[in-house]
Design goal:
There is one protein chain. The chain is an alpha+beta fold. The chain is about 35% helix and about 20% strand. It folds into two domains: about 140 residues, Adenine-n6-DNA-methyltransferase TaqI, Chain A, domain 2 (Alpha-Beta Complex); about 180 residues, DNA methylase specificity domains (Adenine-n6-DNA-methyltransferase TaqI, Chain A, domain 2). It contains twelve helices and 22 strands. Helix 6 packs antiparallel against helix 12. It is globular and about 65 Å long.
């Protein structure tokens, strides 16, 4: 084992004054944590650029290509590799690797430690990990050639996982294209369908409990849906977490989620995503979501889920919100939100098409889950 401070140089950055136009729109890459995602790998371009004058006046220091980027606040634990020389703001604790550690080996190690990194965060206003905290993180340190072999294996598995996710995304786009072909945009309603408020279309629309679930590590048979596992038109059941029977009873007091209900994320970074519950099980809502139970005599849940995932739906829902640091959608707003309602026969045609694509998605999803389990076991083997 080795501490990161023994095998890496930890560096950060700063933000040039935004009031100085001569500091901005230059040709030097300046990256922020917001630009990193769960899928980030190598970053070659930043969204914003700074000038040489900004560097001189702000005492910014560049970090070289190959540096491992680690966001240290807002959020903690996003990881990437610099594809070229860059600068950054103060939201990073980046690691310049010595000859003792391979950067892609370190990249995979940190990608596996998001929960642990967040547990190290300190601060009252917002959590942050300091330079000294990062320097004291311990990492297994096999010989360099072994590090390269480990990284190559994880790169291969990660590439296959990314490919499967892209295949699922393409099928989702196919479903969206079919929806547009049949119905047009669900908000613009260029085809002139009847429109009704969701309160009229649904038997009930209820908010989630406003409390953090008490999760358990054992399979109790009672599940809880985090917003992080709600993807467009699908729930990642392989990533579900469990709660006690008592916690479950507490969280279903407003409404017990059932097969055919639609979960909609209403707050935070994952906002405005809908997915239908496609199975009978004991499941409850976590935080920052709501549950819609469509009246299936006139609105099918598959139709509703796809319609609510249109960007136009989210933009309309957010149009009345201003001045909020954390955008959110209230249940009351959703109840009054009008949506197209084509005849049920047309919706059934669409649902038949969705069922056909779901067969393809099921095979891809099973392959994806196997790959994710493989990667998890490899991470445990290599990093503990």
């Amino acid at each position: 084992m080795a501490r990161l401070g023994e095998i890496c140089t930890v560096v950060s950055g700063t933000t040039p004054k935004s009031t100085q136009p001569e500091y901005w729109d230059g040709d030097l890459n300046w990256v922020t944590p917001a630009e990193l995602t769960d899928e980030s790998d190598i970053i070659y371009e930043s969204q914003r650029k700074i000038t040489q004058q900004a560097v001189s006046d702000s005492s910014l220091k560049p970090f070289p290509a190959g540096t491992v980027l680690l966001s240290s606040r807002a959020p903690i634990g996003k990881v990437a590799i610099a594809g070229t020389e860059m600068y950054c703001n103060q939201g990073f604790k980046n690691l310049i690797c010595s000859e003792k550690i391979y950067n892609r080996y370190l990249y995979h190690f940190l990608k596996d430690k998001t929960t642990y990194l967040n547990s190290l965060g300190r601060g009252a206003t917002f959590k942050e990990i300091s330079k000294s905290i990062v320097e004291n993180i311990e990492i297994p340190l096999p010989p360099l050639d072994k590090q390269r072999k480990i990284a190559a294996v994880l790169d291969k598995v990660s590439s296959l996982i990314a490919k499967r996710r892209q295949q699922l995304d393409k099928l989702d786009e196919l479903v969206k294209s079919r929806f547009i072909e049949l119905f047009g945009d669900p908000v613009a309603n260029e085809k002139g369908w009847a429109m009704y408020p969701l309160e009229r279309v649904c038997k009930s629309i209820v908010d989630c409990p406003h409390s953090t679930p008490n999760y358990t590590t054992e399979d109790t048979g009672y599940m809880c849906i985090r917003t992080s596992i709600v993807k467009k038109n699908r729930i990642l059941w392989n990533e579900i977490e469990y709660i006690s029977k008592e916690e479950y009873k507490h969280r279903i007091q407003r409404k017990r989620p059932e097969k055919g209900d639609v979960v909609y994320t209403r707050e935070g970074a994952i906002l405005g995503i809908a997915a239908m519950i496609d199975r009978d099980c004991n499941v409850a809502l976590g935080q920052r979501s709501m549950l819609l139970s469509p009246n299936t005599d006139e609105c099918l849940p598959q139709f509703l889920s796809v319609a609510m995932n249109f960007e136009s739906f989210l933009m309309k829902a957010l149009s009345g919100i201003s001045g909020s640091a954390s955008p959110h959608i209230n249940v009351g707003d959703i109840k009054s939100f009008a949506i197209i309602l084509p005849p049920i026969e047309f919706q059934k045609q669409f649902v038949t098409f969705v069922a056909q694509t779901d067969k393809s998605k099921l095979a891809i999803q099973k392959s994806l889950e196997k790959l994710e389990m493989l990667k998890k076991s490899l991470m445990q083997k290599y990093f503990g």
